[in-house]
């Protein structure tokens, strides 16, 4: 959702929108499907050439557990505090950001892209290794069955045959 600076009144503007055209990959590689489109509800103010947006954003996602690969539905609901400033004029191909510019997004041609900033912030809220539950044991590397559900009957105590001779060096305990 793009917002022109001249459309922001002096007292600010309340905007609510859904990003229906968003793709799962825009929220990260772990996201398989958007169950509900990303949304945002923001209060946007202009302070000179700076634009500030505060509010909430969220989405409903489908991911896979990083341990057992079971599907997970996750609802994101994030507080947002966004700052925008005009894109600086540069002559070089690369722009080097100062430390104080790391938390600032840029706009150009008098237009702020709120949708892009919301998607970026939501992508930071998606876990890198999502879990179906905190105590998920994952799957067995031998048989592929899920641990902890009675499916895996593999023997857990096995020694790599290449290390077998070392076991003979250890004294036997009675």
What distinguishing features does this structure have?
about 170 residues, YceD, 2 helices, DUF177 domain-containing protein, mainly beta, 5-stranded mixed beta sheet
What would you note in describing this structure?
The chain has helices at residues 114-125, 164-169; strands at residues 2-4, 13-18, 33-47, 50-64, 71-86, 105-107, 111-113. It has 174 residues and is mainly beta. It folds into two domains: 2-125, no CATH class; 137-174, no CATH class. The protein is elongated.
Which strand order do you get reading across the main beta sheet?
A: 2-3-4-5-6
Main structural class: mainly beta
Quick one: overall form?
elongated
Q: How far is the first residue's CA from the last residue's CA?
A: 74 Å
In terms of DSSP E residues, the strand content is: 35-45%
Number of helices: 2
Largest sheet: 5 strands, mixed
Uncertain spans: none
Q: In angstroms, what is the radius of gyration?
A: 25 Å
User: What's the SSE pattern?
Assistant: EEEEEEEHH
Per DSSP E runs of 2 or more residues, the count of β-strands stands at 7
């Amino acid at each position: 959702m793009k917002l022109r600076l001249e459309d922001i009144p002096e007292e600010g503007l309340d905007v609510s929108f859904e990003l229906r055209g968003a793709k799962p990959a825009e929220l990260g590689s772990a996201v398989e499907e958007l169950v509900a489109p990303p949304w945002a509800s923001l209060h946007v103010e202009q302070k000179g050439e700076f634009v500030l947006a505060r509010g909430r954003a969220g989405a409903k996602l489908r991911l896979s557990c990083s341990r057992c690969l079971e599907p997970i539905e996750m609802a994101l609901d994030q507080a947002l505090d966004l700052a925008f400033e005009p894109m600086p004029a540069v002559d070089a191909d690369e722009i080097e950001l100062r430390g104080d510019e790391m938390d600032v997004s840029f706009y150009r041609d008098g237009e702020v892209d709120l949708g892009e900033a919301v998607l970026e912030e939501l992508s930071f809220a998606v876990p890198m290794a999502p879990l179906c539950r905190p105590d998920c044991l994952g799957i067995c590397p031998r048989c592929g069955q899920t641990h902890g559900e009675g499916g895996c009957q593999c023997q857990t105590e096995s020694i790599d045959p290449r290390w077998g001779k070392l076991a003979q060096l250890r004294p036997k305990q009675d």
